[in-house]
Amino acid sequence: MVPMNQWIKIKAPATVANMVCGFDILGFAVNNPYDEMEMQMVERLPNEASVKIINIDHYNLPTDPEKNVAGAALIALIEEYAERFASTRPAGVPNNVGFDVKINKLIKPGSGVGSSAASSAGAVVGANHLLGKPFSNDDLVRFAMNGEKLASGVKHADNIAPCIFGGVTLVRSIFPLEIIALPSPELHVTIVHPQIEVKTSDARSILKHQVLLKDAIKQWGNIAGLVAGLMKKDYDLIGRSLEDVIIEPVRSILIPGFDALKIACKKAGALGGGISGSGPSIFMLSKGKETALAVEAEMIKLYTGLGLAHHTYVTTINEKGVEVIN
């Protein structure tokens, strides 16, 4: 356990959710970009808020903890800590425990690479470290999902789980929560973030509430194929399974140049890819760095041609998840 009023530093990675066909159940963490956070455990007076949010970036996100995703996640953690560990609280943990959190968001909000998940997950992993790690990773996912509900209106874990566990994760069930860690492929990831914003809540609102049985069957086959490809390290099977016939056709209309980009990236050698989370970021998986860089060149070429500002990343899968770095 870290003494009170001692700051720790946290690195919370971006994540790619859905992995094309695995809506709300599959995701993986990446090494770049990531958020930086600092936290300390403090004692609060009974009438004080338990969480204090300090923004050290330019996004002007809410500092009211009930309106901030990191704050919502921490409030859930603090409430359960008080219930479960009131009589077994170790020396050094105050009766009215609280946390100060400094957040430097390097993952742009609304980018589709798990910005809200990084804040929520980073906060609860940091708090757990400060408290002496009384909670399991599954517990931390449960707490962080409160931040995702604040951001999108839904408690989903496809970003949160890989952010906390690292690597590739499968959310088999939300209620009760069951997270399964999958083998991480030795692949490079190319991401392009067109500088438009797609809110997760908006991207969910346009989805169909019913799907055809034939589409559901095809989707189930792709999900099973993707998981099997990861288990067997069969990269060709992974590539064939990166197909979405339910969500992507609807959401892709929100992203300029999506269809043309996907064709160009596959011609450049990418195994496949698609919308990262709810978008607007798009990811592609490639067998080697040289191919990943060629894919990046196609992304830059297309969005430069469209006159749309964009950022790109060539990175790899992060197998550690959120890290406390001191």
The counted number of beta strands is 11
Examine the secondary-structure arrangement and name the CATH architecture of the largest domain: 2-Layer Sandwich
Distance between the termini: 12 Å
Low-confidence stretches: none
Number of contiguous helices: 10
Q: What is the CATH C level class of the largest domain, in words?
A: Alpha Beta
Average pLDDT works out at 95
From the spread of the alpha carbons, the general shape counts as: globular
Radius of gyration: 20 Å
CATH domain fold name of the largest domain? Ribosomal Protein S5, domain 2
Q: Sketch the topology as an H/E string, one letter per element.
A: EEEHEHHHEEEHHHHHEEHEE
Structural class determined from secondary elements: alpha+beta
Helix percent reads: 25-40%
Description:
With 326 residues, this protein is an alpha+beta fold. The protein folds into 2 domains: 8-182, Ribosomal Protein S5, domain 2; 188-316, 2-Layer Sandwich (Alpha-Beta Plaits), CATH 3.30.70. The chain is 36% helix and 24% strand. The protein is built from 10 helices and 11 strands. Strands 1, 2, 3, 4, 5, 6 and 11 form a 7-stranded mixed beta sheet that branches. A 4-stranded antiparallel beta sheet has the order 8-9-7-10. The longest helix has 20 residues, at 213-232. The protein is globular. The relative contact order is 0.18.
